[in-house]
Amino acid sequence: MSWTPSTWRSLPIKQSPNYADRERLVEVERELRGYPPLIFAKEVELLKSKIAKVQEGRAFILQGGDCAESFDRLSGAGIRDFYKLFLQMSVIVGYARGMEILKIGRIAGQFAKPRSEEFEEVGGVRIPSFRGDMINGIALDEREHNPERMLKAYHQSSSTLNLLRAFSKGGMADLHLISRYNLDFVTHNPLGQKYQALAKDISQALAFVESCGVDIDKRNEFGEFFVSHEALVLNYEEAMCREDSLGGGIYDCSSHFLWIGERTIDSPAHIEFMRGIKNPKGIKVSPRMSAERLLGLLDTLNPSNQKGEIVLIARMGEEYIASSLPPLLRATKERNVVWVNDPMHGNTIKSNGVKTRYFESILSEIRQFFALCEECGVYAGGLHLEMTQEDVSECIGGSVTIEGLGKNYATQCDPRLNATQSLELAFLVGEGL
Ligand code: PEP
Ligand code: CO
């Protein structure tokens, strides 16, 4: 069957917004089609070559960010600190493993959420669930699905990317500055100090290398940063497709990397859209996935078995990963795929009505992921995390207790690791857990 960015429209779809104002939807789609692309095909090809490098065991993926970005919380300082935290984690893991860290943010487009329940009850009233700022608002009176929000998502993605590009190209990622990445509130905690000590060691090594006459370029691959989000609202994703005038082919120019989530893996329209775009694709893999089904999906999404195209994101939960992952690892050994672990989404629990995750459960899943990959002879290619630069109390562990969850619970959707927990995780991963 031939593919175009709109062939998904003739297939059954799940998790799609219900827009009452269809006329406005069509106008918004037209407007988006006229906007400049947010990313460039050459960058996507570079990312694919890096994913291929990961498959060869020569690099490691660090993918992470908010569960859902927010329109209200856009700030330059927030983006700067997010980028700094990402660089810190990359320094920690990359230095320990002696390899390139491929940095992919869940940012600049991560505005739409799938939900298990279409409606929720608030104070005895049934209202549509919050679906992410691209679709509706978290405020109780803003739950109607509004196509206008796609325009705002585009503009916020654009300004976020603008700053990220400035940081990655403009010297913020200069290796000589790594001792300045600590965020204020971690400077005096043990993890911040541990980072400082590491940064000092690396700076000394750099100074030594430079004293030998080796020139370390201020602009280097260390600052390279890619963005990603779940390809959920296909009206938006279709409208952002552009044909590459140089190399040909259609790219979804809303982001470098897109993924299919656990709730859209059964949505024929989503699979159809994803199969034709030239971006690399993530597939969330839960314990419900069978080997046969996964191979079928790979046949559809990557029929010529190209390297660098597919990242399989195991999100199993600490209880299920040991039984569910090995058959899938073995079944995909002959395929060009990279396996990474999302230790967040299979470990969500409710405590006093609040969604949270235990740091220990997250660690346990990661530990098992590495061990199972090793047992099956598959390279453990990276991690996919929900994390923030902010000092939030959303996941339990370290300084955050069950009782303290309410202190700074700021997420719009799932609980995130705070900056200190993220650093701790990076050190543990660097040290082989
Ligand atoms: C997510 O990544 O925020 C998410 C909803 O994940 P999953 O589709 O794996 O549940
Ligand atoms: Co989430």
Description:
It is built from eleven helices and 15 strands. By secondary structure, the protein is an alpha/beta fold. The chain has one domain (7-173, 220-430): TIM Barrel. The strands form four sheets. The protein has an eight-stranded parallel barrel with strand order 1-2-5-8-9-10-11-14, surrounded by six helices. A three-stranded mixed sheet has the order 12-13-15. The chain has a two-stranded antiparallel sheet with strand order 3-4. The longest helix is centred in the N-terminal third of the chain and has 22 residues, at 76-97. The relative contact order is 0.16. The site of cobalt (II) ion has 5 residues, from loops. One of its GO terms (molecular function) is 3-deoxy-7-phosphoheptulonate synthase activity. Mn(2+) binds at residues 67, 345, 386, 414. Keywords: Amino-acid biosynthesis, Aromatic amino acid biosynthesis, Cadmium, Cobalt, Manganese, Transferase.
Topology (elements, then pairings):
Layout: H1 22-34, H2 41-55, E1 59-65, H3 76-97, E2 100-106, E3 119-122, E4 125-128, H4 148-169, H5 190-211, E5 226-230, H6 234-239, E6 241-243, E7 250-252, E8 257-260, H7 268-276, E9 281-285, H8 291-301, E10 310-314, H9 321-331, E11 338-341, E12 349-351, E13 354-358, H10 359-376, E14 380-386, E15 395-396, H11 419-430
Helix pairs in contact: 1-4, 3-4, 3-5, 3-11, 9-10
Cobalt (II) ion binds next to loops.
